[in-house]
Amino acid sequence: MRTFIFLLSLLFSVASIYAENATNVRVRQEGQTIVVTYDLTESSPVKLLMSIDNSTDLKELNAVKGDVGDGIPAGKNRTIVWSPLEEYNGFAADNVCFIVECPTSDGQQQRASYAWEINEQLYRPFPDFEVVIGDFRFTRHTSKSTIQLIGLNNRDTRTVVIPESVEYNGWTYGVVGIGEEAFKDCSSITSVSIPATIKKIGKEAFHGCTSITSVFIARGVAEIGEKAFRECRVLRSIAIPSSVTKIGQDAFKDCVSLQSITLPYGLTAIDKGMFDGCASLSALTIPTSVETIGDKAFKDCSSMASIAIPYGVTSLGYESFAGCTALLSMNIPNSVQNIRGRAFADCTALSSISIPNGVTRLWKGAFSGCTMLTSFVIPTTVKVIEEGLFAGCTALASVTIPAGVQSVENNAFTNCSALQFVVLPSGVTTIGSGVFSGCSSLNSVTVGGSLRAVGKSLFGSTPNAGLKLLVPAGMKKVYAEGVLASYRSMIAEEGKK
After folding, report:
1. Model's pTM, two decimal places?
2. Measured distance CA(300)–CA(280) in Å, rounded
3. φ/ψ of residue 4, rounded to 5
4. Residue-range domains of the chain with CATH
5. Position 165 pLDDT exceeds 50
6. Nearest 10 degrees: CA dihedral of 229, 234, 240, 245?
């Protein structure tokens, strides 16, 4: 690529044994112009010359104005302004020197130069309007010397090979971005090749490209925008290069044929909805650099039978694995602290899950509808059994509740029809409404002596016959006349028939 980079080094002046006329030559850059100032001893014609790569072949510059030409009066701080982009479409050179030439009083030509380095790259700015070049449409990027691709010139194009650079009006521009919605709903595209010069694939760039079967992304791309490949319904596999550090939310949402994807180390988040609805996705390795798994990240990935969450992940988002109906088991690493609402809801094949004691909160409905889950040990660090946490876990027969739990919220165990016995720790002070409604096999619930509030319909509208509410010795009357008055017929003291 040709660029306007001028590196000026000190070139010796063409020495003259005669008296000097032009002296004190200085050079500076102002935006996209070169400004040469000098002092002139006697009135005379003045030219501005240029030497390239230390050559003795000097070129007179024409796109100049100011104190240049015939009859320039003597004086200090004479000024010549050169506009290189009016004279050149581009050139490359290791050394460039500007030389002021003027005659002396005895008729000899004198040349003077100055040591200088350019402080800013010069370039011809790309137009600030849309330009069609070949198969594509482009606009100026954030830098005036780079451009981004914003769409196809022909929407019937099947194979898209994005160029690294394009020529326009004799000047070369690097293609560094794919704009928002650049190829959105281009249903004819079957394959895409993205070069290393692209730094960002914009929001919804390929959203709805329903015929894409092949995508190549070169190493160099740093970011994939949100919804970039959403609803690419026949895309089966894709490899994300190691240069990518960010993938936006919903990037591959509803890519229903996607079976495998390679994610790079360096990615720190599986963002919201990234693989939501990828019903064929069966193989995926989460890089160890990932720290968070966002809301609905793997929702309805119904072919995923297993997935390893690496140590370092601290949070599992809302519905992050909800509807993963083939998921059989899950080991949560010790780094995880929060499992947010409905994280594993409706994982109907999930029969085993291990939760570390570092988890401080299991949010609402986190395991609701896990119909194959048979047992569960709540971490010792959890203080609240939140609303609907195990609702609809119809195979749940055993749950271990730690001593630190202080409250059980509404519908926490609703419709856990295999649950027979529940022991609530002595520190539980509140029990919400409908906590055990629909627990058709429930024989007893043991409570401690700290209860201060109990919600309505604790056991639903029709409690099981023979269901016992076991209280500490000596507490039957207190509870029967207090917070458990509505259930006095069920109350029995522990150890007594």
Report:
1. 0.77
2. 10
3. -90, 80
4. 22-113 (2.60.40.10), 125-264 (3.80.10.10), 402-497 (3.80.10.10)
5. yes
6. 20
